[in-house]
Amino acid sequence: MPLPDPVPLFGPAYKRDPYPLYARLRAQGPVHRVLFPSGVTAWLVTGHAAAQRTLADPRLGKNHALGNDRWRARASIMPEPQHSQLQVHLLHQDPPKHTVMRRLVTDAFAPRRVEALRPRFQEMADALLDAALPADGAGTVDLVRCFAARFPFQVLAEVIGLPPHLAARFRRDWGKVVAPVGPADPGRPAYEALLRELQAYIAEVVADRRGHPGDGLLARLVTAHDAGELTREELDSMVFQLLVAGQEPVTNQITTALVALLRAPKALDRLRAEPDLMPAAVEELLRIDSAFELTTWRFLAEDADLHGTRVPAGDSVIVSLCAANRDPERFPDPDTLDLDRAQGPHLAFGHGIHFCPGAALARIELQVALGTLIARLPGLRLAVPDEELQWIPAVLGRGTSALPVSFAPPACPRPRG
């Protein structure tokens, strides 16, 4: 039986607003064959119930070795030897190796530990705004450049024990190595150069932490490698995952949350007047437009039925967290930002054994970031028409590459210095 033609999941219109497409796909059924920019096809799961079951399905593995030749020809974009050296982190592991690796990071992101750091995170947020805002407290700034692209990395460095001299040298451009750049793409040489630079930086981080052991997560991972719990490839991959996946999604989530609030000015005004609503508001903002739009690949070891669709072994299966989080069967009036919503948990951080280990930290970061921006930028509004916002072309994530906003001076300016 021939496979259905894949639905394309790319292009400016799709990245600006994928939700009408997701609504049509959900109405047709839970599983659909889709096409990504690199030419790779996948089976996309859309509804909330199907997504939750898929994320907990023990038949589906994450290890790239399970992918078939069709998938590998298009999706294994990172060249060797880097693919083997940087792609064996938590997101691409199954038990029992996944269990061992996850245990090494959970303490660093434990809710009680990161909550104790909230005052420090607040200091960081205030310092960034102090440096970025005009002296009279009014004007126009790009919140990505001056805040959203910087705050999450500062927090991450504090939490994992990345020393200041190394944190200062980290290039945000290195995060682009997770974007699809195929072998024939004209940008391939620049991509490979970024990849080599990042790999050299990771080697320097590992050497530094070996020479200066301490209690930070990076130092503990180096110790685990030296004790034989991790291979060198697994150690480098985990550092890679922390540096890239540990901060860029929060940058993007700050932008999606702010855009959602700016599109719902009554909710924004209420949140400014009732800051105690912030924890609940963050959950609703995560639901309505998650920075983790799609999960990474999963694979069946043999041909099997997936929610009524026959999926070949080794084909990639991806869950749309955004589509699941706007399923009207789970969330009434799902396209409306409702700060009083009480329909239960969203799937923005995933589900099952691969639930994001840094979820507690991300929640606090978002609460601090949004609370600080809303409190200190009265009259906050977009400085460009909504339709001119540039959405990042990432395959799996959502966010804006810039967020120009205007604001009025505060009633009581903060003292400088």
Please render the helix and strand layout as text.
Layout: E1 7-8, H1 12-16, H2 19-28, E2 31-35, E3 41-45, H3 48-55, E4 60-61, H4 69-75, H5 82-86, H6 97-106, H7 111-116, H8 118-132, E5 139-142, H9 143-148, H10 151-160, H11 164-167, H12 188-211, H13 217-226, H14 232-245, H15 248-262, H16 265-273, H17 278-288, E6 298-300, E7 304-306, E8 309-311, E9 316-319, H18 321-325, H19 359-376, E10 381-382, E11 404-407
Parallel strand pairs: 1-2, 3-9
Antiparallel strand pairs: 2-3, 4-6, 5-11, 6-9, 7-8, 10-11
Helix pairs in contact: 8-19, 12-13, 13-14, 15-17, 15-19, 17-19
CATH superfamily of the domain at 79-289 and 335-407: Cytochrome P450
Cα separation of the termini:
71 Å
What share of the residues does DSSP label as strand, in percent? 5-15%
**SSE run:** EHHEEHEHHHHHEHHHHHHHHHEEEEHHEE
Going across the biggest sheet, name each strand in turn: 1-2-3-9-6-4
Structural class: alpha+beta
Major sheet characteristics: 6 strands, mixed
Helix content: 40-55%
Number of strand elements: 11
Which second-level CATH architecture of the domain at 79-289 and 335-407 applies?
Answer: Orthogonal Bundle
Family: Belongs to the cytochrome P450 family.
Keywords: Heme, Iron, Metal-binding, Monooxygenase, Oxidoreductase
Organism: Streptomyces luteosporeus
Pfam families: p450
